[in-house]
Automatic annotation (TrEMBL):
<feature type="transmembrane region" description="Helical">
    <location>
        <begin position="80"/>
        <end position="98"/>
    </location>
</feature>
<dbReference type="Pfam" id="PF04238">
    <property type="entry name" value="DUF420"/>
</dbReference>
<keyword id="KW-1133">Transmembrane helix</keyword>
<dbReference type="InterPro" id="IPR007352">
    <property type="entry name" value="DUF420"/>
</dbReference>
<feature type="transmembrane region" description="Helical">
    <location>
        <begin position="163"/>
        <end position="185"/>
    </location>
</feature>
<keyword id="KW-0812">Transmembrane</keyword>
<keyword id="KW-0472">Membrane</keyword>
<feature type="transmembrane region" description="Helical">
    <location>
        <begin position="40"/>
        <end position="68"/>
    </location>
</feature>
<protein>
    <submittedName>
        <fullName>DUF420 domain-containing protein</fullName>
    </submittedName>
</protein>
<feature type="transmembrane region" description="Helical">
    <location>
        <begin position="118"/>
        <end position="142"/>
    </location>
</feature>
């Protein structure tokens, strides 16, 4: 019996969310053995945060453009921008998980007061939004990729998509604030 994703969007959303979050938490908590991942040269590993900052900045632009296209009724352009945003997120996530699996999360190099009152709250909100975004993004992406554009009006795509895009945008921006605190300011 073939799997009909179109009729199983909530179930597929849940399954993909669980797998994705397990990978993220597994990498961050050190549950993925470092030996299963080939090690890149040091210069490549040290470049990942900077590459991810650029990827995040471009994703902010594509999300904003996607929302603007949707508001203007240019749904094919909206779809292109949001799929581009999803691809950028995938690139970001693969690079982030690779680096964290090999080296663990980056330690904050600045003063303890800044760490406690600025860095950790920003990081916490960024992480919380990223976690909340995962199922929302899977849901709207699965709806969008399993239906023609005209059929999406009969779904919760627009309503959930507005929430997902807003939270996703904020998460990317806060991620770049975290990057700036880790690699630029300190």
């Amino acid at each position: 019996m073939p799997l009909d994703v179109r009729t199983r969007v909530p179930e597929m959303t849940a399954a993909l969310s669980v797998v994705s979050l397990a990978l993220v938490f597994g990498a961050v908590l050190g549950a993925i053995p470092r030996g299963v991942v080939p090690r890149a040269p040091a210069f490549a590993l040290s470049a990942i945060p900077h590459v991810n900052a650029v990827v995040s900045a471009v994703a902010v632009v594509t999300i904003v453009a996607g929302v603007a296209f949707a508001r203007r009724g240019e749904f094919h352009r909206h779809r292109a921008m949001m799929l581009t945003s999803a691809a950028l997120f995938l690139v970001f996530l693969v690079l982030y998980l690779y680096k964290v699996t090999l080296e663990g999360p980056a330690a904050f190099p600045g003063p303890d007061a800044v760490r406690r009152w600025v860095y950790l709250p920003v990081l916490a909100v960024h992480i919380l939004l990223a976690i909340v975004c995962i199922p929302l993004l899977y849901y709207v992406l699965l709806l969008a990729t399993t239906r023609p554009v005209a059929a999406l009006t009969d779904t919760a795509h627009a309503r959930v998509g507005r929430i997902a895009a807003s939270l996703w945008l904020i998460s990317f921006v806060l991620g770049n604030v975290v990057y700036a605190l880790l690699y630029v300011v300190y």
